[in-house]
TrEMBL record:
Signal peptide: none
Compositional bias ranges of the Basic and acidic residues kind: 99-114, 190-199, 206-216
Protein name: SCP domain-containing protein
Parts of the chain that traverse the membrane: none
Domain SCP: 14-180
PANTHER family, A to Z: SCP DOMAIN-CONTAINING PROTEIN
Domain of life: Eukaryota
InterPro entries: CAP_dom
Region (Disordered): 90-123, 186-244
């Protein structure tokens, strides 16, 4: 299989469906007649066991009829590299899920290749499908996932960029990983680290009292767990909030990170930054 070519097809189809959700309705309606209980018998293919049967397909049709169009995604090579890290890891080790064999998270893999803060990131994974249409259907029907988290990522308007990578999978034949971001910059993390090093050297030349003040500000972390007063996004069961304040150049940078744990076990992270006079 030419995984690169298929990833391109999936990218193009995903953008078409984001801009016109009704595009997939006729395809899904046609599938309804091939269900027998919870087994899908598509012509020319092996029977497929599902968890919800025709109900999940009909529910998706109803969703698509109401879903408003969202903007197309821009392809980002750095996100593709992050997706590649995970796809090859999953495939080689026969694994599933969003945690790597090295215990890496989506956030950590994306940050290996660039910067995404402030903003939001997410990840979808498709297993066992070998056509662009089947991959897209798997993600938007989201059979067996009560929160429909993959569908939510698929149509998330905050996401502006995506990288996709497909690889052979030891257990499921094929795996495709999608990494999304609202504002990703390839190599941005390295540039950011360089700026931080310059700031560090500058601070070393400042007066002791100012250095201590900076240290106190840098250590000002406040964590709220399991929601508290924070509003949950749809499909989330809890949220962890972390607030960090950094004083730099006479300005106070207040960085708020929210990590949502979704009902399907995946996580979504949102980062915002507010700047005030120190």
């Amino acid at each position: 299989m030419n995984y690169s070519a298929l990833a391109k097809e999936v990218f193009e189809l995903q953008n078409k469906v984001r801009q016109d959700p009704s595009l997939m309705i006729p395809v899904l309606e046609n599938r309804l007649k091939y269900f027998k209980d919870k087994i899908l018998h598509l012509p020319g293919t092996q029977a497929t066991n599902t968890k919800e049967g025709a109900n999940s397909v009909q529910e998706c049709i109803d969703f698509l009829k109401k879903q408003k169009p969202v903007g197309p995604l821009v392809y980002e090579k750095g996100l593709e590299e992050a997706a590649r890290d995970h796809a090859e890891d999953l495939g080689t080790n026969g694994m599933t899920g969003h945690e790597g064999s090295d215990h890496s998270t989506t956030k950590q893999r994306i940050e290996r290749h660039g910067s995404w803060k402030p903003g939001t990131i997410g990840e979808n994974i498709s297993f066992g499908k070998s056509t662009a249409e089947d991959i897209v259907i798997q993600l938007i029907v989201d059979d067996g996932v009560p929160s429909r988290g993959h569908r939510s990522n698929f149509f998330e308007p905050a996401y502006k960029q995506v990288g996709i990578f497909g690889a052979p999978h030891k257990a499921f034949k094929h795996v495709f990983v999608f990494d999304f971001a609202s504002k990703f910059s390839q190599g941005g993390k390295q540039e950011q680290d360089g700026d931080q090093e310059k700031d560090k050297k500058k601070k070393q030349q400042e007066k002791k009292v100012e250095k201590q003040k900076q240290k106190d500000d840098d250590d000002d972390d406040d964590v709220e767990k399991d929601g508290g007063k924070e509003k949950l996004i749809p499909g989330a069961k809890k949220v962890q909030k972390k607030v960090k304040t950094i004083t730099k150049g006479g300005k106070k940078h207040i960085i708020t990170t929210k990590i949502y744990t979704m009902n399907d076990g995946t996580t979504k992270e949102e980062v915002t930054e507010r700047v005030e006079d120190a």
